[in-house]
Amino acid sequence: MCPSLLPPLLLLLLLCARAAPVRGDAAPVPTYRDTDPVTGAPVECDRCPPGSYLRSTCTATSKSVCAQCPPGSFTELWNYIGKCLRCGVCGHDQVMKTPCAAHTDCQCEFDMGARHSESRSGHEVLTRGTADEDTVCQVCPNGTYSDTVSALHECTLHRGCDAPGMQMVLKGSSWHDSVCTSCKGLSCKDAGDYLREILPAFFVHQKIHPRRLRRILNRLPSESGKNHGASGLGLSDHQARINAWVASATAAQIRQLPAALTRSGADGAGHRLLSKLQRIEWSLSELNDSRNEVDNIVQ
Predict the structure, then answer these.
(1) pLDDT digits 0-9 by tens, 155-182
(2) Which residues contact 15 (CB under 8 A, 6 or more apart)?
(3) Where residue 9 falls among pLDDT bands split at 50, 70, 90?
(4) In angstroms, what is the C-alpha Rg of the chain?
(5) Within 10 Å of residue 241's Cβ, how many Cβ atoms?
(6) Distance separating alpha carbons of residues 274 and 287, to the nearest angstrom
């Protein structure tokens, strides 16, 4: 049949098929520029395919010589490096999904029986962990807080102290809630009682070593001389004992806690807690002064 008599669509398909490269045609080998080690003249050398490395470079009269990557190494791209890359190793909480081969590194995924990383207090989970990725965390946005360590938890809005009769005595931070009061005149609690509200979150946030926590317990007012367990007890055990002390201690004893921390070697924690106590005392003083001014105006 004459081509001019073919249907237009069939003719177009034949022309495209004739123009297309034959399946299986090899793509051009990538190259790199080098210098002939004998003549010093520039030469263009073939790169080595994935799974191999460059044993010797080309010259004006010879091609590049490539060699297979030995076990435990790989190359994923066309290259001209003199040594294959060392295979990676999966982390302690990962399992191997695909072993390392000459042309690709090993592929790891998280062991679903192992726990993903947890967001520490003052942070929230931005992306939950999956089989391929660990947990991604971020600092709590302004106006929110987190007082827990969790792989799932999100930050919580600070308590509002704007209800009628309520006043703020301590502004919330990324790791503790705001502390409010509705006291009037002499009905206000001691500053130690308001500090008590943030202490459980404080000890979670500080991440103090169990050995130091035990030392702190031994220096707390009303706890000195008591046996607080063997050195093998964990962090949660000592934090539970401190929380029990916090719940039963008097306001005066709570006020001595910053000094007890400093004597135990936790100077930074002691200073930070003292700063919180002083802010509460200042707020209570301001509230008392403002109420005295109102009383004087009324009189």
Answers:
(1) 999 999 988 888 999 999 999 999 999 8
(2) none
(3) very low
(4) 35
(5) 20
(6) 20
